[in-house]
Amino acid sequence: GAWIAALTPDGWPVLLDAATLDVKQWWTLEDAGYSSVTFSPDGRTVAWGLADKSMRLTELASGSEIRRLEAPSSPIWSVAFSPNGRLLATGEEGNSVRLWEVHTGREWQGLALHDAPVRSVASKREGDLLATGGNDGKVQLWNVQHERKHEPPLNSRQSQPVLAVAFHPRRPLLASAGMDGVVQLWNVRTG
Asked: Is 147 helix (H, G, I), strand (E, B) or coil?
């Protein structure tokens, strides 16, 4: 069946049956302040971002923790798998974006893309681009394959923090949503 991984209003992770919304599983881990959740592309793993500077990878079938990754300096606000499931991106309170190798737990790349906490990360379906949104009102694109900022840059200065970024699944479009209620759309090829 289809599942929904969610956080309760008080920050506890829960797994729901998508058809009935019945609770399949509660994770009663120590209270660490969960802030983000995502499924792996194959649907077998759930990644949780936490305020204690860690991220947890949980096997969906058993509910057991597979791996715990520790960010060096600040709470994790957002998590996103690469389309092939090999990398996990984190957006952190300390203005950092990190790319982690899922299989080994090793930090693959650390990026300084924002001047304020990073609230949202998203990976493009093809895996070549990573989008980030921050409290600085900026939306940034990172070329994962070439390990540099994407060209052309986005003209993306929102007046409030950017809370969410998302790629269109088939077209070269990126959407962002800001705390100011503004949703912006960009063509990632032209900026």
From this structure: coil
